Each structure stands twice: as structure tokens, then as C-alpha cells.
Amino acid sequence: MPTTLAPSATALTHTLAGPSGTALDQTVGTWIRGIVSKEPSWDKFVERRRRTLKISEQLEQYKYVQRIFDRYVGTSTPVDLQGAGGVVINRVQVLRAFNLPASWGEECTETLVLTTLYGPGGTRCDDPRVRDMMDAEAPVTTTIHARRFLTLLREIHGQWTIAHPDG
After folding, report:
1. Could you write out the DSSP letters of every residue in 58-73?
2. Closest to 96 (Cα-Cα) out of 40, 142, 87, 116
3. Does position 140 have pLDDT exceeding 90, yes or no?
4. Distance in angstroms (rounded) separating the CA atoms of residues 55 and 101
5. Cα 140 to chain center, whole Å?
6. pLDDT score of 24 more than 90
7. Dihedral sign, CA of 39, 51, 56, 92?
8. Is 100 helix (H, G, I), strand (E, B) or coil?
């Protein structure tokens, strides 16, 4: 009788991490929220989430969340945190602290990177369309306005990449 095991039988399953939305993610997110919600920038972030923002204001929101990513992602929770002791923190868990989906975090980071390249004082160019959109009032919602801004940044990036194939 063969003693070979199916590959899935020998795979190790990491028990401290799982898909977005798990109790672990929620526990870690709640722990982070308990810390950052006591900081001065939290109140401004929450207040701005309640209204329609210009892109320049939304960029401030993104920068704030990015600072929290930089501060927590890759670090560990306290070993005595019930249900999540010693867990290496990921982006999804940080976003849980803000009750934001993973897509928001992806758009946040991409927008900040592209704005650094093509926005005011951009390292590749300072595109006037980006400047114009940054101070324009949101026509509908902040989310739609932010996605249109990201679309513009992606277009500019695509055009720049074609014009500068060597980087």
C-alpha cells in the first residue's frame, strides 16, 4: 500500500492569518483603532469622511492612512492581545481600523505614488490637469471624484511611459 500523501495533506496552514474579514483581522483592526482613535489626526479624518472632499483634501486622508500603514504594517501585535497575540499586522487589518475595504487602501497608495510623479512638483512632470482637478469641487461623491482623479493619473502615467520607454 503506497504511503504517499496528497500535496494538500502536507501543506502547513498558517493559523494566525486568513482572508479579509476574519475575526483575526477584526481583532487586530480594533486594537489599532483603539490606539489611533485617541490621536489628534483621527478626529479630522472622521470628520472629513462625513462630507464631500476636494481631491487635495482626499489626498490628506490618503496620507494619513498611509502613515498608519507605515507605522503598523509588518510590526506585531502585543503577545498578550487576546485572540491575536504576536500577529504580524497587514494592510487589511489596518484598513479594518478605519472600516475601509482593501480596494480603498490600494487606491490610496497608487494615487499617492502617481501624484508624487505627476502632481504639483511632480518628479516626472507637473501636469496642469492634475492641479486643476485637485482643487475642483467633487461633482457627485468623494469616491467617484477620487476614482476619476486616479483614472487621470493612470492616463498621464501611460502617456509618459510611452513617451519615455527607457524610464
Report:
1. HHHHHHHHHHHHHHHT
2. 87
3. no
4. 19
5. 22
6. yes
7. positive
8. coil
Q: Name 88's bridge partners.
A: 76
Backbone torsions φ then ψ of 53, nearest 5 degrees: -115, 150
CB 118 within 8 A of CB 157: yes
Cβ atoms of 103 and 96 closer than 8 Å: no
Cα–Cα distance for residue pair 53/114, rounded to 1 Å: 19
Q: What is the CA radius of gyration of the chain?
A: 20
What does the pLDDT look like over 48-67, one tens digit per residue? 999 999 999 999 999 999 99
If you average pLDDT over residues 78-102, what whole number do you get?
96
Partners of residue 76 on adjacent β-strands: 88
CA torsion through residues 54, 55, 59, 61, sign: positive
Query: Which helix (H) or strand (E) element contains residue 166?
Result: none
- Measured CA to CA in angstroms, residue 155 lies from 13, 121, 151 at distances of 41, 18, 6
